Amino acid sequence: xxLQASGGGLVQAGGYLRLSCRASGRFxxxxxxxxxxxxPGNQRAFVAEIVSGEGTTYADSVKxxxxxxxxxxxxxxxxxxxxxxxxxxAVYYCRAIDEQxxxxxxxxxxxxxxxxxx
Length: 118
Description:
By secondary structure, the chain is mainly β. It has strands at 2-6, 9-12, 17-24, 30-38, 45-51, 55-58, 66-71, 76-81, 90-99, 104-108, 112-117.
C-alpha cells in the first residue's frame, strides 16, 4: 500500500488548508485512516482519525478547527484545517491500517509540510 499526501504549504495564521491522502496498491480493508504530525524537535503526534463504521476522533488541540473526512470510493482521506495557528506548523503524515484476516498492517505516507506564519 502506498500513501500519497498532498496539500501542504505556507499560510498565514487564521487561514486554511486542505490535505489529501490517497491510498493505492493492494489492500484488504483500510479500516482506519488518520493524520499525524511532527513539529520540529517534537515527536510525531496524533491529529485525527476516521474509522469505518465508527466515526472520527480528534486531538484536543485541533477540535473545532480541523475536520477529517474520507472518500471510500477513491480511497482518499482529507483533513480540512481552518483557523490555522503557528503551532500547527509541522510535517503532516497520513496513516492507514489494513485489517487483514490474520494480521493488521500499518502504513505511513511520506508527509507534507504545513507552515503557518504569524
